[in-house]
Structure formats: structure tokens, C-alpha cells
Write a structure and sequence with these properties.
The chain is mostly beta strands. The protein is 0% helix and 47% strand. A four-stranded antiparallel sheet has the order 1-4-5-6, with no helix packed on it. Strand 2 and strand 3 form a beta hairpin. The radius of gyration is 17 Å and the shape is elongated.
């Protein structure tokens, strides 16, 4: 019953994270809209993976009790995904 928090990292895969940009309707900065550009290319984002104290290697759902933080090359966090039961 090892209840420790574990960390790992990797790079993103293709079609894993949607890439959006912000547009403005009529150049009005008070009316922003998200525009889907596509997906970030493979190996463009650093993915920090944290497995909480309830994670077990033998669990049924691989991502359960984990969170993933996606960071670009400028160190900006683009997305954090948390998986729970």
C-alpha cells in the first residue's frame, strides 16, 4: 500500500492537444472568440504527469488519479487535465 505521489514527463503526441487562437469580432477587443487552428504538432509541448497517492499501476483506467500539465517552449501552461473516477 504505497501511497506516494509520483511524477513523470514526456512530450505530446500528434492530435493530443487542440491549438486555439483568439480572434476579435470586428477588431473589438471586448468581443473575443476562440478559433480552432488544429492540433499542436508532435513533440511541441512538454507534458508533466502527476500520479496522486491513490494511483496504482494495476488500476483499470490508466489515467485515473493522474493530472497532466502541457507547457509550451516559452514555459506557458496551455492546459491542465485532471482525471478522476
Amino acid at each position: 500500500t504505497n501511497h506516494t505521489v509520483r511524477s513523470d514527463w514526456r512530450y505530446n503526441t500528434a492530435n493530443e492537444v487542440v491549438h486555439f487562437r483568439v480572434g476579435f469580432t470586428g477588431n473589438d477587443t471586448e468581443k473575443p472568440t476562440l478559433i480552432k487552428v488544429g492540433y499542436y504538432a508532435k513533440n511541441q509541448l512538454h507534458v508533466a504527469i502527476t500520479k496522486d497517492e491513490n494511483y496504482t499501476p494495476s488500476q483499470t483506467l490508466e489515467n485515473e488519479h493522474t493530472s497532466r500539465t502541457y507547457t509550451n517552449k516559452q514555459g506557458q501552461v496551455l492546459l491542465t487535465r485532471t482525471y478522476a473516477s
